Recover the amino acids of this structure.
């Protein structure tokens, strides 16, 4: 009988710890996607040394854009500080298409809705804390 009590306590502790270890849910709201064509790419960075450097993202997510879809869910990021850039990859080529002058041809946006002027923003400008379930809205720049 004593073993059953210990087993019960052990299972209870494991259950409590598993709920504690769950990642917070990040709901990304993008209200102005122009069309249901292509994908939305979300690039997540977790430090200023890699921010906006190609192939150095902490995580990349791709979501199929569907008619009337403007909420995208990320549920596997651990608690921490992050910055993100998103873009509407209309032709699904996994690249932000640009003009010959380097100006983006597809909609893009940064966390905290930072609008770059003459240079790209830095990590601190775009940084947000993910410690609990969070909603972030980013409007695409066209």
């Amino acid at each position: 009988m004593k073993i059953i009590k210990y087993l019960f306590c052990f299972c209870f502790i494991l259950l409590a710890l598993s709920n504690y270890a769950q990642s917070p849910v990040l709901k990304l709201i993008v209200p102005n996607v122009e069309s249901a064509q292509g994908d939305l790419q979300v690039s997540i960075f977790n430090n200023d040394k890699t921010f906006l450097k190609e192939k150095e993202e902490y995580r990349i997510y791709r979501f199929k854009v569907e008619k009337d879809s403007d909420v995208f869910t990320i549920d596997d990021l651990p608690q921490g500080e992050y910055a993100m850039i998103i873009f509407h990859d209309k032709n699904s080529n996994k690249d932000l298409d640009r003009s010959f002058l380097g100006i983006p041809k597809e909609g893009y946006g940064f966390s905290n809705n930072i609008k770059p002027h003459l240079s790209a923003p830095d990590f601190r400008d775009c940084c947000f804390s993910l410690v609990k379930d969070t909603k972030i809205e980013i409007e695409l720049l066209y």
Notes: The two ends are 68 Å apart (CA to CA).
